[in-house]
Amino acid sequence: MRPEITIRGFSSQHYSEYSLVLRRWQIDDAPSIFKAIDENRSHLEKWLPWVQETRSVNDSIDFIQGSVPAFENGTRYEYGIFLRPIKDNTQWLVIGAIGVFRRSLEGVLEIGYWLSKHMEGNGIVTLAVKTLMEEVKESLGVSRFFITSHVDNWKSRKIPERLGFVAKKLCETKPPLNGLPSRLVQYQLE
After folding, report:
1. Residue 97 and residue 79 in contact, taking contact as beta carbons nearer than 8 Å
2. C-alpha closest to that of 76 among 99, 94, 57, 59
3. DSSP of the chain
4. pLDDT tens-digit profile of 84-94?
5. CB-CB neighbours of 124 under 10 Å
6. Considering the entire predicted model, what is its pTM?
7. Which domain, by its residues, includes 54?
8. pLDDT 10s digits, 9-33
């Protein structure tokens, strides 16, 4: 898997001076990751249980330090979703994250993602998922994927549906998300 992937086909009238890039997390990204999560906390914690546990830059450092060996041993390939100004390669803006994860089914990878609220509606996650699936197919030879989303998270659910995934099963989170029972839908692409 490549450490950096520029996403082709990204165009936005508000971000026309930027490239959209997936890049492996680096320790220097920790303050930016934490800032993006903290600024989007109320938006993200409705759907993602780990948001409540992310309380400081040190939590982001711990996450990055755990992602490095996981990337190298092939259990998790986690990338930041960045906007990078075309004319200034030094200013990377963290707008989300995406990853593929090996789970219990052999030859099947789970895809997970999150995006800053102000970036929704630009097709970013759909492009990121499509790009990452192409990279995984080329690099690892895997073409079976699943995405799990909360049944009430309609924006997240539209992404696998746009990409031809099919809803296969419903399940509940254990433990419940934010103290409330949460129903999840699992989409599969084979």
Report:
1. yes
2. 99
3. --SEEEPTT---STTTTEEEEEEE--GGGHHHHHHHHHHTHHHHTTT-GGGGG--SHHHHHHHHHHHHHHHHHTSEEEEEEEEEETT-TT--EEEEEEEEEE-SSTTEEEEEEEE-GGGTTSSHHHHHHHHHHHHHHHHH---EEEEEEETT-HHHHHHHHHTT-EEEEEEE-SSPBTTB--EEEEEEE-
4. 888 877 778 99
5. 24
6. 0.92
7. 4-189
8. 888 877 788 899 999 999 999 999 9
Residue type, 150: H
Output the domain CATH number for residue 88.
3.40.630.30
CA-CA distance, 7 to 107, in Å (whole number)?
Answer: 25
Quote the tokens at residue 123. 């097709």
Sheet of strand 183-189, all strands in order from the earlier edge strand to the far edge: 4-6, 18-24, 76-85, 93-102, 108-115, 144-150, 183-189, 166-172
Instruction: Specify the number of domains making up the chain.
Output: 1
Lookup: tokens for 30: 């920790």
List, in order, residues 6 or more apart from 114 with CB less than 8 Å away.
40, 44, 47, 48, 96, 97
Distance CA 28, CA 30 (A): 6
